Amino acid sequence: MSGLIVLALRLLLAAALYGFLGWALITLWREIQRQSYTLATRRTPGISLSVRDGDAPPTIRYFSQPDITLGRDPGCDVPLTDDTISTRHAQLKYHHGQWWLEDLASMNGTTLNDIAVTMPTVLTSGDEIQCGRTRLTVGLNSDAIVSPTQRLEKQG
Q: pLDDT for 31-77, tens place per residue?
C-alpha cells in the first residue's frame, strides 16, 4: 500500500514540475512577443536642422533617422562646405528618449549655444549648434514622426 502512495506522490510531483515548466515557458514567450512588438513599433521623433552657412539663406533639413552625421564628407547626412569643418565633425543621436550631440574629435570643435561640446550633450528645441562658421538651429518635434514623403514635400 505504501508503494502505491509513493508512486502517486511521484506522479503528482512530476505533473507539478511539468506544469511549472510549461507556465514558465509560456510566460517567457509572451514577454518576448511583447518586447519584439515594442521594439518594432518604436519610432524616432522627427528633427529639423536649419543650416546657415555664412551669408547664404538658411536651408531646412528634416530627419526621422536615429543617427545624423555632420561634416564635409559627401556621405554625411548633413554635408557642409565650410573649410573649417572636419570630414566627420559631429553626430546627433537619438537614444534614451532624447536627442544627443557629440563632437567626433573635430579639429576646430563643436559648440552648443556658444559652449564647447566635450561630451555627449542633450539637445532641446531651439538649440544652436556651431561647426566652424556654420550654424545649425535644432527643431525637435516629439509629437509627430516625419515620414519620407513629408520630408520631400517640405524640402521641395
A: 999 988 877 777 778 899 999 887 778 899 999 889 999 999 999 99
DSSP class per residue in 87-141: TT-EEEEEETTEEEEEE-S-SS-EEETTEE--S-EE--TT-EEEETTEEEEEEEE
Residue 115, phi then psi, degrees to nearest 5: -120, 130
CA distance 64 to 51: 17
Report the largest interatomic distance among the alpha carbons of the chain, rounded to a whole angstrom.
Answer: 100
pLDDT tens digits along 70-115: 999 999 999 988 888 999 999 999 988 889 999 999 988 999 999 9
Residue 142 pLDDT level (bands cut at 50, 70, 90): low
Long-range CB contact pairs, 57-66, < 8 A, 24+: 58/137, 60/154, 60/155, 61/155, 62/146, 62/150, 62/151, 62/154, 62/155, 63/146, 63/151, 64/145, 64/146, 64/147, 64/148, 64/151, 66/93, 66/94, 66/95
Nearest to 123 by CA among 95, 86, 85, 154: 95
